[in-house]
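Suppose a colleague, Dr. K., hands you the sequence of a protein chain of 565 amino acids and asks what its three-dimensional shape might be. Before reaching for any lab equipment, you can write down a predicted structure in token form. Begin with the sequence itself:
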Amino acid sequence: MDSNKVNVLLVEDNDKHVRLLQQMLFKTGDANFQIIRASTLGEGIERTVLPGVQLILLDLSLPDSEGLETFSKMHEAAPDVPIIVLSGMDDEELAMETVQRGAQDYLVKGHVDNRSLIRAMRYAQERKRSQQELQRAHGELERRVNERTADLVQANEKLQREIVERKRAEDALRESNRQLAEAMAKLREQQEHAIQRERLHALGRMASGIAHDFNNALAPILGFSELLLLRSEMLSDPEKVKSYLEMIHTAAQDSANVVSRLREFYRYREEAEVFAPVPLNDLLNQVVSLTQPKWKDQALALGVNIRIKTELENIPTISGNEAELREMLTNIIFNSVDAITGSGTITLRTFKRGGSAILQIIDNGIGMTDEVRSRCLEPFFSTKEERGTGLGLGIVYGIVRRHDGKIDIESELGKGTAVTISLPLYKEQKPVEKPAAAEMPAKPLRILVVEDEPLVREVIGVYLREDHHTIETAANGREALEKFQDGAFDLVLTDRAMPEMNGDQLAAEVKKISPHMPVVLLTGFGDLMSGMGEHPAGVDLVISKPFTLNTLRDGIARGLQNAPH
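The predicted structure, expressed as tokens, is then:
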């Protein structure tokens, strides 16, 4: 056969149709197509085995096969040869099915001309050529994929080795982390023990400082009261008795002041507290004059020569409480005086920085170690042994904090100390109206007194009877609640810390029964509660212990006024 010819297998049993197709091909003048005829499907399948068949024109209605089955068998026998269906049936569904199963085209006899036939056959050729190229490309691609797969296998093996090494490293790191976690847990436990020891140590220092001041204040109370009890003949001397009682009373007030001053360590600025403009330079000059007996007269008597030098710039007024600021400056200057031995200088310096006034108190005294400097603001921490209680700088810190200021202390042993305080400049504030003084009750009251300490209960009773009030007493909250339910009262005056039911719980229960009943809490925690802004529900007023007759009178009046009406 001519190698330029395209061998077309025509599977057609109708001779007429065969001649017609041959004529259509010759009419085009295209001599590239060589027809090889088969009259049955079986014969056609046999001829596909022969070499050189490049295109199949297939009729679906043959003596040995019919319809879609004809195409399926031929396609199965020659899957690589393009098949064009030539059918006498104009069946669109059948045409779609054969094309979907692999037919190149579906032509209906009598509806096809020579041009469309040639075009379909050439398209089949091109498709075959494209398939062959695609197969070659596929083969090349498969070869490259195999090569790449081999490379990837090698890379994967290398990665697996790296993974094994990394897993070993991770296991080692995990073990290291476990050991580190154990060490951290042990360190945390040790830190907690250290913190607990330090807390107990701080509590001991505080208790020691309080005990020191209380013992000093209690000494005259015990001494003079013991004298009056042991030597009854003294009672016949009214002047001496009055003198002793006045000293006992003063010592008791000093004891109360120790507790009151503790509040300065934690008290925050109250919302109603309005700061006034304070000329800091004038205040400094005033404090220098007020402290002169300490830094000059007493110091000279002890052989110490101290000079105070001022370097005060022209600064605006600051915002603050003048009395508190005066106490703050006094405490710092006293500390500087105590730090100077032989002779020395205390320098007071002021200047403005941004929106703050800066105050510096610098001395060339003995200075502090790093440990002392880090703890000098702690309440009751002191290096003066019996000469001090450590209240000074703790109060200084509380005052600076309430004034929204900052304090920084620099010190070096043997070279002195510099205290730097930053305080905000004055800004106009809206004045707070002071509440009107509470009016005393017009007639005696019936008061329920709840107090678990017999002596305190007795004192309260004496005070209230002095003003002709009628009282009913209870030793705890549970007893008080029973008496309140059974009686009619104008006011409840209760302690806070009591067995069975405390004062907070009692106040809440009383308000449930009688919402308008005035409840006054009389407690030793008063200053603490005030400092932390604590006010239990159901309580109309808190009075701090110890108290005086006037304090109690004012508290009853304000309690009646504060109660809901």
